[in-house]
Design a protein that fits this description.
With 127 residues, the protein is α+β, with helices and mostly antiparallel strands. It has 1 helix and 5 strands. It has a 3-stranded antiparallel sheet, covered by helices on one side. The protein has a two-stranded antiparallel ribbon with strand order 1-2.
């Protein structure tokens, strides 16, 4: 009576194939996470830009100035209006986005992307 079973070589080949598939899946998952964080960063930066432009048009044609170099809570005193109460933060590190070249007439907000060929993404004043 002949016993049928897998040989050691067949088992090693199957394990090798499984290892390759798992490796490809892990790389794809990692890339998807990076792209998701990049999309979130772009969305956050555009949301801040829209809030800054709204502040400009409602609050005397001036932009808010950040004293610490970070995006501030955007609150107009006269007329009293909360435009951006919760300031978005970077999805990976939880740090606020930097606000550079910030004056009452100009601003620039930049972030670094993880998965794009051009890693720097910036928006600036539109007025």
């Amino acid at each position: 009576m002949k016993k049928e079973s897998f040989t050691l070589l067949e088992m090693l080949i199957v394990l090798g194939i499984i290892a390759v598939v798992i490796t490809f899946a892990a790389v794809s998952y990692s890339n998807a996470q990076k792209k998701g964080r990049d999309a979130r960063r772009k969305s956050d930066i555009k949301m801040v830009q829209n809030a800054m432009e709204q502040y400009y048009s409602v609050c005397g044609f001036q932009y808010p100035v950040a004293s610490n170099g970070l995006v501030p809570t955007i609150l107009c005193v006269a007329p009293s209006s909360m435009i951006l109460q919760t300031v978005p933060v970077d999805p990976r590190g939880g740090t606020p986005y930097p606000l550079s070249n910030s004056t009452t007439s100009t601003y620039q907000i930049c972030t670094t992307l993880e998965s794009e060929a051009q890693p720097n993404y910036c928006v600036a004043n539109q007025q």
